[in-house]
Amino acid sequence: MKPLGKMLIVCILVTTMAVAASGCTTSTTSAKPQLTLATTTSLYDTGLLDYLKPYFEQQYNCTLLITSQGSGAALQVASRGDCGVLAVHSPAAEKAFVANGTGMNRRCFAYNYFVIVGPPSDPAAINGTGAVAAFQKIYQLGTNNTTGVAFVSRGDQSGTHVKEQGIWASAGYNYTTQIEGSGAWYSETGQGMGATLQVANQKQAYTLTDLGTYLAYKGNLTLVPLGVTNDSAMLNVYSAITVYNTKFTTDEIQLANNFVNFMISNSTQQLIGAYGVQQYGQPLFYPMNGNCSKFNCTCTGLATDLVPPTLMTATSTATANATMTGMAATPAVVSATTTKAAT
Amino acid sequence: MNEIVEGIRQAIQLIVSLNPEVLDITARSLYISLSATLVASLIAIPIGGFIHFKQFGGKRGLITIIQALYALPTVLVGLLVWLLLSRSGPFGFLQLLFTPTGMIIGQTVLIVPLMIGMTLIALSGVSQTKQDTVISLGATQLQTVITIVKEARFAILGGVILGFGRAISEVGAAMIIGGNIKGYTRVLTTAIALETSIGDLPLAIALGIILLLIALIVTALLFLVQER
């Protein structure tokens, strides 16, 4: 009997611990509305979003849950209705996402540049050439099995990977038939930007990265930027998008809109511009500051749509009218305290 | 080599100074995996008992399937539970994807087969002679079951501990279902994966040391239980 009693005590202890722990978790999270943000690894791995998170949570009295994936994966998560808002950098995919009626209120909030980084010895001699010429050189030497010439790709349909595919196309190669699987020189990690930089560093290979992530990781890397920075063809624009799903409540959509508005607000734009300056000597991301005409995107105007404009004509007129009058009557930024808890 | 030594030194410092982030991630890991172990015990032990004490057709086949599922890949469980819990999935209305509760469900699914199997082994370990003796002493069916389960309790507990060990050390399901959200679904294993990829090696090593310590404690418990 005695050991059984002991076992009983152990069971009770375990149960109490679990219950107590669950009490702790729910008491801190369920009181406030929650917003799930699916984001690209570059915005997360550089620490920018964790840095902005408390400002947003304080302003709207809510909990921001950030899950970081590549832009492709983040858009996938969003199209299934598993996050409320997006912060991504894959313009063509974003436009398709919005055109589908799965997203709205797309606002660009920051930019930086893509840059090719590689070993300081630069075995393919791409330093100073443009991105397209650099890719051609790497391809020619790589497929010739030249020692030391290798390229590491994200391989995850992230914004950076999509950009890379675009450069291969500009360089005159068919990505799926000529680049992928064309030899040991080209490898795909399928991981985030930080992890891919580490792999490229280990292999002393070339890779394409956004400048922000590179600067944030520079301390751990021997890779150096090669080729032209500030090249307009290498622009990298980040946007926030409200996700639309018929299963979302208006309050949830409103909170997502609040996040989009938060990202383009003056105070956040200043925070973005200042982020990393002290630690890395230059900003990791440049804010739009309401001036984005040359980026072919929208960075001003509050996010107010509660239903994607593309769906407005398709949905029943009653819903559309209700939404439109609601939009006109209520200010765009409502206090999140009125929104109901997400869970 | 220097990197490793320096990493370990800083890691120990993080643990000794009770770094809040390290403590937070450790507590969350324990909470999620202990909860999953508790739920899985409540499911697996009765099922294991049922399979052991009942005679039915296809019993051998069922046990073989359960044994095959010991090696259930964690990412496959992650994918399956992700599809079920996604807002577009059949249980989307529960809104459990990217939550600790969702992770508990995933880890429960992962370890239930292992724990059913260990319960079966534990119950079969009680000798037939004992069972016959109990029956010959005039025990009812229920009394027989209770006596056998009591005899096997330490071996069953061993299975529970083994299940916990698998739950706390898996990364695939936790990453896919939890989404590795800081302060919410980030656990020891997913944090190690992230910190390694972003190059924060001391934190990754510190969390790794803690995970190893938990594994050590679990093994020690298992040893103590089996000594009985």
Set down the secondary structure blueprint:
The complex is a heterodimer of chains A (343) and B (228).
Chain A (H helix, E strand, L loop, with lengths): L1 H28 L4 E6 L1 H5 L2 H13 L2 E6 L2 H9 L5 E4 L2 H9 L3 E16 L12 H13 L7 E3 L5 H12 L4 H5 L6 E3 L4 H11 L2 E5 H7 L6 E3 L8 E9 L6 H15 L1 H9 L2 H4 L5 E2 L21 H4 L4 H13 L14
Chain B lengths: L1 H15 L3 H34 L5 H10 L5 H12 L14 H25 L3 H9 L4 H11 L1 H17 L2 H7 L9 H10 L3 H27 L1
Helix pairs in contact in B: 1-11, 2-5, 2-8, 4-5, 4-9, 5-8, 5-9, 6-7, 8-11, 10-11
In percent, how helical is the residue content of chain A?
40-55%
What CATH architecture label of the largest domain in chain A applies? 3-Layer(aba) Sandwich
Range of strand content of chain B? under 5%
| Rg calc of chain A | 23 Å
Q: Please give the radius of gyration of chain B in angstroms.
A: 21 Å
Decide which structural class fits the backbone of chain B.
mainly alpha
What is the N-to-C order of secondary-structure elements of chain A (H for helix, E for strand)?
HEHHEHEHEHEHHEHEHEEHHHEHH
CATH homology-level superfamily of the largest domain in chain A: Periplasmic binding protein-like II
The CATH homologous superfamily of chain B is called MetI-like
Low-confidence stretches of chain A: 1-5, 19-29, 316-343
Number of separate helices of chain A: 15
What's the CATH class of the largest domain in chain A, please? Alpha Beta
Number of extended strands of chain A: 10
User: How can the largest sheet of chain A be summarized?
Assistant: 10 strands, mixed
Query: Which architecture of chain B would the CATH scheme give at its second level?
Result: Orthogonal Bundle
In total, how many beta strands of chain B?
0
User: Low-confidence spans of chain B: pLDDT under 50, at least 5 residues?
Assistant: none
Overall mean confidence score, pLDDT of chain A: 84
